[in-house]
Amino acid sequence: MEVTKFAFLIPVIAIVFGCGIAIIAIVLEYFQKKKYYESLVKALEMGKDPEQIKAMFGEPEEAKKNEPGRYLRRGIITIGVGVGLALIGWLNANTWLVAIGCFLGVLGLSFLIVHFLLNKNKQSE
Protein backbone atom coordinates (compact mmCIF):
# COMPACT_ATOMS: atom_id res chain seq x y z
CA MET A 1 0.00 0.00 0.00
CA GLU A 2 2.83 2.42 0.76
CA VAL A 3 4.42 1.81 -2.63
CA THR A 4 1.41 3.16 -4.52
CA LYS A 5 1.67 6.53 -2.74
CA PHE A 6 5.25 6.96 -3.84
CA ALA A 7 4.62 5.62 -7.33
CA PHE A 8 2.34 8.61 -7.97
CA LEU A 9 5.14 11.05 -7.05
CA ILE A 10 7.70 9.69 -9.53
CA PRO A 11 6.17 11.17 -12.72
CA VAL A 12 5.27 14.41 -10.94
CA ILE A 13 8.82 14.90 -9.69
CA ALA A 14 10.26 13.96 -13.10
CA ILE A 15 8.08 16.50 -14.91
CA VAL A 16 8.74 19.28 -12.39
CA PHE A 17 12.51 18.76 -12.41
CA GLY A 18 12.66 18.33 -16.19
CA CYS A 19 10.79 21.56 -16.84
CA GLY A 20 12.65 23.32 -14.04
CA ILE A 21 16.05 22.50 -15.50
CA ALA A 22 14.99 23.74 -18.93
CA ILE A 23 13.63 27.00 -17.50
CA ILE A 24 16.78 27.58 -15.44
CA ALA A 25 18.98 26.99 -18.52
CA ILE A 26 16.98 29.49 -20.58
CA VAL A 27 17.11 32.15 -17.86
CA LEU A 28 20.85 31.72 -17.29
CA GLU A 29 21.55 31.97 -21.02
CA TYR A 30 19.49 35.15 -21.18
CA PHE A 31 21.45 36.79 -18.35
CA GLN A 32 24.76 35.74 -19.90
CA LYS A 33 23.83 37.30 -23.27
CA LYS A 34 22.51 40.43 -21.54
CA LYS A 35 25.78 40.90 -19.65
CA TYR A 36 27.80 40.38 -22.86
CA TYR A 37 25.86 42.97 -24.84
CA GLU A 38 25.80 45.50 -21.98
CA SER A 39 29.58 45.36 -21.72
CA LEU A 40 29.80 45.67 -25.51
CA VAL A 41 27.64 48.80 -25.44
CA LYS A 42 29.73 50.30 -22.62
CA ALA A 43 32.90 49.74 -24.62
CA LEU A 44 31.33 51.48 -27.63
CA GLU A 45 30.17 54.40 -25.48
CA MET A 46 33.71 54.83 -24.14
CA GLY A 47 34.83 55.48 -27.71
CA LYS A 48 36.94 52.38 -28.26
CA ASP A 49 37.88 51.37 -31.78
CA PRO A 50 35.63 48.60 -33.20
CA GLU A 51 38.71 46.47 -33.97
CA GLN A 52 39.83 46.70 -30.33
CA ILE A 53 36.34 45.73 -29.19
CA LYS A 54 36.29 42.78 -31.56
CA ALA A 55 39.67 41.60 -30.27
CA MET A 56 38.61 42.13 -26.66
CA PHE A 57 35.24 40.41 -26.78
CA GLY A 58 35.74 37.93 -29.59
CA GLU A 59 32.90 36.58 -31.67
CA PRO A 60 29.51 35.94 -30.10
CA GLU A 61 28.49 32.33 -29.61
CA GLU A 62 25.89 32.56 -32.40
CA ALA A 63 28.65 33.07 -34.98
CA LYS A 64 30.48 29.97 -33.75
CA LYS A 65 27.36 27.83 -34.01
CA ASN A 66 27.39 27.96 -37.81
CA GLU A 67 30.81 26.39 -38.26
CA PRO A 68 30.73 23.55 -40.80
CA GLY A 69 32.97 21.36 -38.64
CA ARG A 70 30.21 21.28 -36.09
CA TYR A 71 27.96 19.34 -38.46
CA LEU A 72 30.73 16.90 -39.34
CA ARG A 73 31.29 16.12 -35.67
CA ARG A 74 27.56 15.75 -35.01
CA GLY A 75 27.14 13.51 -38.05
CA ILE A 76 29.94 11.14 -37.11
CA ILE A 77 28.77 10.84 -33.50
CA THR A 78 25.14 10.31 -34.49
CA ILE A 79 26.04 7.66 -37.05
CA GLY A 80 28.20 5.89 -34.47
CA VAL A 81 25.39 5.84 -31.91
CA GLY A 82 22.91 4.67 -34.55
CA VAL A 83 25.14 1.82 -35.72
CA GLY A 84 25.77 0.79 -32.12
CA LEU A 85 22.07 0.71 -31.28
CA ALA A 86 21.22 -1.15 -34.48
CA LEU A 87 23.93 -3.72 -33.75
CA ILE A 88 22.71 -4.25 -30.18
CA GLY A 89 19.14 -4.56 -31.44
CA TRP A 90 20.18 -7.01 -34.13
CA LEU A 91 22.09 -9.19 -31.63
CA ASN A 92 19.15 -9.20 -29.20
CA ALA A 93 16.51 -9.56 -31.94
CA ASN A 94 14.89 -6.31 -30.81
CA THR A 95 13.33 -4.61 -33.81
CA TRP A 96 12.70 -1.36 -31.93
CA LEU A 97 16.40 -0.85 -31.22
CA VAL A 98 17.23 -1.63 -34.85
CA ALA A 99 14.63 0.92 -36.00
CA ILE A 100 15.94 3.60 -33.63
CA GLY A 101 19.51 2.85 -34.72
CA CYS A 102 18.55 3.18 -38.38
CA PHE A 103 16.80 6.47 -37.67
CA LEU A 104 19.88 7.83 -35.92
CA GLY A 105 22.08 6.63 -38.77
CA VAL A 106 19.94 8.50 -41.32
CA LEU A 107 19.99 11.59 -39.07
CA GLY A 108 23.78 11.38 -38.95
CA LEU A 109 23.92 11.13 -42.72
CA SER A 110 21.81 14.28 -42.99
CA PHE A 111 24.32 16.12 -40.77
CA LEU A 112 27.11 14.97 -43.08
CA ILE A 113 25.18 16.22 -46.12
CA VAL A 114 24.75 19.62 -44.45
CA HIS A 115 28.50 19.69 -43.70
CA PHE A 116 29.43 18.96 -47.31
CA LEU A 117 26.92 21.51 -48.65
CA LEU A 118 28.30 24.22 -46.37
CA ASN A 119 31.86 23.41 -47.44
CA LYS A 120 30.84 23.53 -51.11
CA ASN A 121 29.23 26.96 -50.60
CA LYS A 122 32.32 28.25 -48.77
CA GLN A 123 34.63 27.13 -51.57
CA SER A 124 32.48 28.77 -54.25
CA GLU A 125 32.51 32.15 -52.45
Protein topology:
Blueprint: H1 2-45, H2 50-57, H3 61-64, H4 68-91, H5 95-124
Helix pairs in contact: 4-5
Brief rundown of the structure:
This protein has 125 residues and is mainly alpha-helical. It has helices spanning 2-45, 50-57, 61-64, 68-91, 95-124. Helix content is 88%, strand content 0%.
Please tell me about this protein's structure.
With 125 residues, the chain is mostly helical. The protein folds into 2 domains: 65 residues; 60 residues. The chain contains 5 helices and no strands. The chain is flat and about 65 Å long. The model has no long low-confidence stretch (mean pLDDT 83).
Q: What descriptors fit this protein?
A:
125 residues; mainly alpha; 2 domains; transmembrane helix; DUF6249 domain-containing protein; transmembrane; membrane; DUF6249
Total domain units: 2
Report the biggest beta sheet as strand number plus sense, adding barrel if it closes.
Answer: none
Compute the CA-based radius of gyration: 23 Å
**What best-fitting shape do the alpha-carbon axes yield?**
flat
The total strand number stands at: 0
Helix coverage percent of residues? over 70%
Tell me the distance between the termini.
70 Å
Derived structural class:
mainly alpha
Please work out how many helical segments DSSP would assign: 5
Low-pLDDT runs of 5+ residues are: none
Q: For the residues shown, what is the average pLDDT?
A: 83
Protein name: DUF6249 domain-containing protein
InterPro entries: DUF6249 (IPR046216)
Keywords: Membrane, Transmembrane, Transmembrane helix
Pfam families: DUF6249 (PF19762)
